[in-house]
């Protein structure tokens, strides 16, 4: 409990500060995406905006780090509500059940293998070229 | 003092966002516990488990998804700021990323093409309906982006979100196995591959299981894949004669 009091005594309300920065970037991203009519979601544009901001600033403020890394630690929880939405499509999934299952498994395995292989090869060649 | 009848209480509680918010958090905690008890196996992903338990719960108490989502949307909403927060690990590892920019870009393009083309080809070959094929197409992209793309090419946005999640958990299950078989030990390569093929799930997995470097590369892959797929997918769909 005393911890919470200290938090208010100091300059920072780190969670509120950090969250405000994240939301502001998301908002700006939303404006840019809608304004320019690009088919990219606002949060992705917001991420680019925050990255540019951090590069200009040259460091990550601790309030932003606390909030951001806290959110990222529980990233998977955030997918749960959308995932429960699968129940709405039970009928369609039932109709195409096996094609969906086979496609997901085979194609994901293929994507993983090809990407890892290409990157591993390219990276090796790149490093060799660099040290020359 | 009169005791309120139990069924009346239930009517009140089940219409209240509080309940779905609470069961979502509880289901997630229980799912993580169960996953840990099973030795942290990626074969039973905590999120898939939590989703299955919640669907079971909703069917059991006869609550529809719209009512559930009224409460759960507070959690769902945080996906936006969490996506923005990916800029932090990207910034932390900017030097390494800058050094490898071209290999990363090329791997990303090849990966996206493999994901989209193989998905469409396999689904069509197995006789899935066109609507299903178009919904499956953006499955390796993080769900908010995938929903937008699915809508654009003629798929079903909300189903796309679900398929994205399944892809994520399958990617986390297959990834470590494939890396072992292929002898890939570099955390950067592992993270990038997981982020590309399994988006947010892969990124969370990379952070938790492989480390911060893998997490940063994974976040980068997820962001880059989302951006590029949004532009490339409509072209690939048209190439298959579906657009």
Automatic annotation (TrEMBL), chain B:
The keyword Flavoprotein does not apply. It is found in: Membrane. It holds the Pfam family LrgB. InterPro entries: CidB/LrgB (IPR007300). Keywords: Membrane, Transmembrane, Transmembrane helix. One of its GO terms (cellular component) is membrane. It is a multi-pass membrane protein. The chain crosses the membrane at residues 12-31, 43-61, 73-91, 103-126, 159-179, 191-210, 216-237. This is Inner membrane protein YohK. It comes from Halomonas chromatireducens. The gene is yohK_2.
């Amino acid at each position: 409990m005393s911890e919470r009091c200290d938090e208010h005594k100091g300059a920072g309300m780190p969670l509120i500060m950090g969250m405000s920065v994240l939301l502001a970037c998301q908002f700006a991203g939303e404006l840019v995406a809608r304004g320019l009519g690009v088919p990219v979601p606002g949060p992705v544009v917001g991420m680019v905006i925050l990255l540019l901001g951090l590069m200009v600033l040259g460091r990550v403020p601790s309030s932003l780090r606390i909030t951001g890394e806290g959110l990222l630690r529980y990233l998977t929880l955030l997918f749960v509500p959308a995932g429960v939405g699968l129940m709405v499509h039970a009928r369609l999934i039932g109709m195409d059940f096996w094609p969906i299952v086979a496609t997901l498994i085979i194609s994901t395995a293929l994507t993983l293998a090809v990407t890892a292989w290409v990157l591993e090869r390219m990276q090796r060649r790149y490093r060799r070229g660099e040290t020359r | 003092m009169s005791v309120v009848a139990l069924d009346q209480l239930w009517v009140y509680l089940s219409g209240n966002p509080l309940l779905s918010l609470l069961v979502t958090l509880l289901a997630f905690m229980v799912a993580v516990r169960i996953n840990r008890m099973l030795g942290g196996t990626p074969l039973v992903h905590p999120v898939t488990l939590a989703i299955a338990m919640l669907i079971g719960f909703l069917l059991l108490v006869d609550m529809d998804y719209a009512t559930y989502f009224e409460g759960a949307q507070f959690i769902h909403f945080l996906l936006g700021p969490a996506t923005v927060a990916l800029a932090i690990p990207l910034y932390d590892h900017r030097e390494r990323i800058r050094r490898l920019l071209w290999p990363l870009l090329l791997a990303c393009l090849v990966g996206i093409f493999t994901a989209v083309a193989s998905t469409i080809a396999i689904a069509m070959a197995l006789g899935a309906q066109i609507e299903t094929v178009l919904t499956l197409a953006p499955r390796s992209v993080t769900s908010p982006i995938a929903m937008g793309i699915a809508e654009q090419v003629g798929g079903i946005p909300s189903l796309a979100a679900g398929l994205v999640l399944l892809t994520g958990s399958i990617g986390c299950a297959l990834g470590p196995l494939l890396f072992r078989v292929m002898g890939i030990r570099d955390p950067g390569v592992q993270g990038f591959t997981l982020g590309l093929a399994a988006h947010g799930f892969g990124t969370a997995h990379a952070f938790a299981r492989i480390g911060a470097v893998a997490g940063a590369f994974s976040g980068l892959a997820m962001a880059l894949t989302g951006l590029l797929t949004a532009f490339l997918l409509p072209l690939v769909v048209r190439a298959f004669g579906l657009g």
